[in-house]
Amino acid sequence: MEPSTDPMVRARELSKRYGRTQAVSELGFAVESGQICGLLGPNGAGKTSTMRMLVGLSAPDTGSAEILGSPVALGAGVLRRVGVLIDGPAFVPHLSGLGNLRLLWSATRRAWPPPALADALDLAGLGPAIDRKVKGYSMGMKQRLMLAQALMRAPDVLILDEPANGLDPAEVRALREHLAALARHGAAVLVSSHQLAEVQQLATHIVVMNHGRLVTAGPLAGLLDDTSTYRVQVDDGERAATVLRRTAGAATITVRGGEVTVTAPGVPARELVHSLVTAGVGVTAVHQASRSLEEVFLTMTRGDDDHAAR
Ligand SMILES: Nc1ncnc2c1ncn2[C@@H]1O[C@H](COP(=O)(O)OP(=O)(O)OP(=O)(O)O)[C@@H](O)[C@H]1O
Asked: Of 5, 58, 95, 254, which has fewest CB within 10 angstroms of its CB?
């Protein structure tokens, strides 16, 4: 085994069926050190089932999950290096927040306190409430305690299912900054979310799944580039639009003042600029447009069955 070449997290052709539901089908992807990978998919796509297999909470029917190059199963030693938030641990209601963390930590058989307790509590931001019984906690407070539980062990790998649920915008931002700092220090983070705008700000990579299958996986930046749409700043928008309408390949053109947005699949920017300038239109700037993650996601998962078949 050569640990240096192994990704931190690897799903190898994972499959899982529940009765008649094929929750996950031959799913493969990897998350490397320093990456924050958003696991995306519509409801029921198989995200939670995938995460459960990655941390040994359920066994795949076929395929395997590996963390830091080691196969994962319930109780596997490598899981000590993983912070997990899935379904949430069952907190003991009559114990305090801190009492619950202590109880969960005791399962590791390591001395209290955990290495990153202070940072985890800081992020959880529960203040004096950390010493109050969990039964009086709001949903948001429980969610923050769950995050503290996942982070207190200073994990190398984080697997978080919908971690921003129940958090307010300031807390979401604090979480984003915390995860980014962990990734900068070499952690690998896999995080599922329905909040695409949030993922767009947080993730370096994404894995999109639908009907249990992989739709796409890769760096976020490349995915958001729209190589066929340009925003062109000109001295005369209407005139530019007239010229562009005559240019072969320019499919849609919208004008807003001195800015023209043109979709021209396969037409290089220099060709568009050339036709404009030749026709006497002054061009001050050309930018390639980028799409939002939401647009990309909806396009990928809309005609689901053709994407799933790719
Ligand atoms: N323990 C189970 N028993 C039976 N069916 C299950 C079980 N767990 C998941 N499923 C089914 O497997 C499919 C995938 O579910 P999963 O929870 O993994 O999806 P998800 O992408 O996490 O969805 P959501 O975004 O709604 O949380 C769904 O059809 C779900 O009903």
From this structure: 5
